[in-house]
Design goal:
about 15% strand; alpha+beta; flat
């Protein structure tokens, strides 16, 4: 399987995220909950998301994963 890597430049944008530590087994349910919490928080502040949700992984490997979404 071949991959094509593309670099895109984008303007800096403010981010609303929650950083947590979880396990691989819980990651998909945790991500769904985090996206729900961040969208609810943005709405309560009168903000509208300007792009798709994303996750950033700070550590990967071992028993735990540290991420923000």
């Amino acid at each position: 399987m071949a991959y094509e890597i593309e670099i895109r430049e984008a303007k800096a944008q403010p981010v609303l995220s929650i950083r947590i530590t979880t396990t691989m087994a819980e990651m998909s349910s945790v991500l769904g909950a985090l996206f729900g919490e961040t969208f609810a928080c943005a709405g309560s502040l009168g903000a509208t998301p300007c792009g798709p949700p994303f996750a950033r992984y700070h550590t990967w490997g071992g028993a735990e994963i540290e991420l923000e979404a």
